[in-house]
Fold each of these.
Amino acid sequence: MAPKFEKAKAIEKEHVVVDGIDVSGHWNRMFEQRVITEYTPELIEKIADLPNAESFANCYQCAKCVAVCPVDVVGNYGPRKLYRYAQTGMDLTEAPELWLCTTCANCLRVCPKEVNMVKIMPAVREQAILEGKFVPAELQQAFENTAKSGNPLGQPQRKRDAWIQNAGVPIPIIKDLGRPVDVLWYVGSYPSYHPRGIDAASAAARIFTALGIDFAILGKEEKDDADSQRLAGEKGLFEMMTEYNIETFNKYEWKELVVTGPHELNAFKNVYPKYGFERPVVHYTTFLARYLDQLKPLLKHPVNKKITYHDPCYLGRHNGEYEAPRKLLEAIPGVELVEMGRNRENGYCCGGGGGGMWMDSFTAKHTTMRLSEKRAMEAASTGANVLAVACPFEVSRFEDAVKSTGNEHVGVLDILELLDKSMRGE
Amino acid sequence: MNIVVAIKHIPSIADDLPVKGNNVDFDSVDFVLNEFDEQSIEQAVLVKEAVGGTVTVVGVDVIGELDNVLHLALAKGADKAVKITGDDPAADSHQQAKWLAEAIKGLSPNIVFAGVQASNDLDGQIGPMIAAYLDMPYIGGVSSVEVSDHTATVNKEFAGGFGAKYSVSLPMVVGVQAASKPPRYAPISKVRQVAQMATIEKVAPSGGVSSGLSFKKMAPPVVTGHAEMIGGSSKEVAAKIVELLKSKGLA
């Protein structure tokens, strides 16, 4: 789509003669004052006036963010560019650019002015939604599914725990258990419904059982965390789900909440405290890394694979967990761990965050390739034959991406599945 | 302009339909707004935005959960919501059409929108039956509606990619296939606000009718075999199909 606004006019003159010397050329701009009157601050102020989006006005155009923006790698994007577009006439609330940011936070990591797109984007998106502006249809569907069915996939609530029948170990539902547990395991929507998510959930259940962990799940009472919907601009939906979830979590006695997904970790650990929920929450990698000594003897079967690990943005950059996943992978006999060029703090985004999970068709129209495809190629270039992940959004995203980029030889597996393979020898 | 939208709350077919006795097991299935009614609510609001008036959404509350649907419609731009306390999930299209028509009569509508069909009304009877009860003309398979004065210009879709433009005098009943724009999104904050403020008018069901049909048995379709792919040129394929039809006594 062509931008709806006009680019700033060039200020060079074709011919400039200074003191009888012809100095025509692109560098002659230094002989003339820069025209600043053709820029308007209005559209920047329109954004910066929104609560939580104030830092947008801090940008001083250094462009450090563009260098690390995952969307710019496959398109023409970045916070600095958005600022410049706004300066030259783009209303972000109406532009397709509004929906491309995945809130991966790599820009914030390098920004000297703390321009925080993780706060700006949800605020501007919320404004656009409230004003009835364009919302990508797929995203709208995910919002409606979450509101109606309690999960973005639109699957029935009463089937949320159907997966436990085939997990191979008994999985207690906390309501039926009727006693306090050490660990309340929040399974998550994709691990509950998506076929490949169910594989990871089943693996987790077998690992927890083998370690003798006293755990239970919420079963049919569990509903989506809606953190990505919040970041995509649906704060009202997030608040509705949050009220329900906090009430449900507080109905039961447990010591620690273990989550399968980094987005849930982010919601429950970083956002729920604002709504009065402050209890211990931990991602499964951090949790299992504590049990390494007990886990290692269980990992009997070698997994002879060259593995590269993809840092999920919401586990790594947003929550600082880089080592636990690697420790778990290194504990598996036979595994050779290799790193991709962009790893840890500079990990490349899979494109699923900030609502990107439900905007693939929309994003495809504005980028040269999917972020997940770029990352899949990066994984393949290491020579790895397994791309290990730790976020339930990623398995389906990367499985599609390895196929569409001709890298089917790279298997995509959750760390849970790899641990389970080593435990059971399959 | 008095605009009325007749809606249906129907069992969701997103999942396997559970069966109990001779009907759907209504207790173990989610109910959703008929997807064609989502289109017809949008079309009604678009007409209101174009020419002014009020949109009243009317539905039969078959399981006591219609309020959520009505709140959503109000958040999307409807002005009034009416629920008929039918309280019978097994009420068929004939019965629902009668109840809806009786409730709509008192609203003296200029135009009535109904989804062209529903997953439990695949032959699309609701719209035509409401029109018959109200003694109004009906036009179905509609994909856009424009109203001026006492006339509506509607696009009707036909099979094979054909369409036709009709000019119809009001009042009338329109069976909406698709709104002229995709249904808008109602932010949850707005829906929740509406849910706290809105009043939903309750109407007792009036008039009992029956389709005259009774269920003998209801069961999920049985998978018996696989599709056979017939290869070759179109003539060869056609010959094989004819042969197959003959062998099964169908031609």
Amino acid sequence: MTPSRAPMTAPTAPAGTAREVLDAPHTLLTTMAAPVDPADPRVVEAAADLLATLRRADDRLGVSAPQIGLGWRLLAIDVSSHPRTRSCAGELVLVNPRLTQAARWETAREGCLSVPGLVGEVRRATRITVTGQRPGDGESLTFHTDAFEARCLQHQLDHLDGVLFLDRMPTARAVHRARHPQSPLRHHV
Amino acid sequence: MGLSAVTVLGIDRPGVISEVSGAIAEQGANIQDSTMTLLGDYVVMTLLVSGTLAAEKLRDHCPDLVITTVEMDGLRDPAPSPRAWFRPFARTSPGEADDGVGFVLSVHGADRPGIISAVSGVLACERGTITGMNSRLSGDLYVLIADVRIPGDVDVAALMRRLAAVGAGLGAEITFRPAVPELL
């Protein structure tokens, strides 16, 4: 995480409305999302809705615009409650995010709000750099992070490309039922 | 020493593996290979067991489970018999033949009949072999993940186009990616 980073949510962000999260199968979850203007009031409203959706339950760690029915390149994460988190920016909303660096790949289990009941083992980078824009003022942000926050960001970035974790299974045995509600795996990235 | 395949089916509960393995050990038999999974709320186990095994003793020990045993030595007999439903396939030594290239196939979409048949049919046309398969139904979402080996001379790009076309016809997303190499 960059120590001198700008605030990850605009100080004047409006209060949003929590929206229903789409379950797979759904066309929006397998379709590439489109870039948007971060200053567009509709995008600012969608960013607030993403945050409100994220805050709706304690086990939600990230959500992307396609998951709430919008084919836009916009995501929100907050992994502060997850035990595998090291670096942590708290609540982060990014418009038009892009993965620019990735290193140190590891395989770990993850689930998805849009794929309830299943988890899978996915190989992802544990050190990444992501660029994007802040909703509202459109300020450019560069974000370095690691560990679980990196995994969560890559999972949400995949959503913007119409990719589910199911598309990244390394073997037939990598998909499992999420059966233990008390497990940390109940957290959905 | 005999070799038996044991299948165990039952409602999932704590202690299934312990009871089955304990009953096998009590008979002096040895578990060589095993696999276990949960299908819905049911536990499914298949074990390859060496030694003398009495199926009745297993069933008496675990009365709530459906346990079947098959003597594998009989299956190896090439002579035609009423039990010869299993045709042993020709094994090749490593390096003896084209071992193929490994891929992972992911299919997800709305559940409907014929998904496995359609996808495996495309692979079979290219002499592809499914070496491992796992399917799950979660709500309306059907998921199939398969380990696949394809002969080295197959046009993979053309195969991927055919799979994509089949996926489109089924309303399912299909991903076909090279497997991560396992040898270090």
